[in-house]
Amino acid sequence: MFIVLIYTIPALLIFIFTDNVNWFFGIALAIGNATGAWWAAKFAVKKGEKLIKIILVVAVFIMSLKLLGIF
Known about the structure:
mainly alpha
């Protein structure tokens, strides 16, 4: 995560200085990410590791079907 921070800050500054930042979408995305992370952390603590693994396996399976063009 630290490496991502290192190249994200300069990239964001460049986009800000060149006026290429859509602040409405950026703030909406940040709020959505924060809310999703908060909810997921609470869910993981409450329901446990086993349910998280099941959800992950199902998500990977569905994505593999999508990538194979099945749906």
